[in-house]
Amino acid sequence: MKNGIPQAWMAELSDQVALVTDPDGRAAVLSEMAYAARRRLDVDDNDLVDMLELAEAGRMWALMEHEEAWAIGLFGDYDPDHYGGHQVIKGSGKPPSCE
Length: 99
Known about the structure:
Number of helices: 4
């Protein structure tokens, strides 16, 4: 084939719900699918590299989405960090000093 990234793999990458639910697990599945496609000679080395980079980019996107969903309270019994949906960074409450 070697005509670029397989459409079935792209469909798996586009499954945003699965990616956000388990970012690391889905990235591992996508990587394994990419290596399997290379072993079958469905893709060349350049396509394999692109697929692995896209899998990692998808994982990073999903981790950010997961963090944002957590911060605004979308995960059941947990209170949001801030009811306006803003991220709250808590410090020690002490003013900064040069010491």
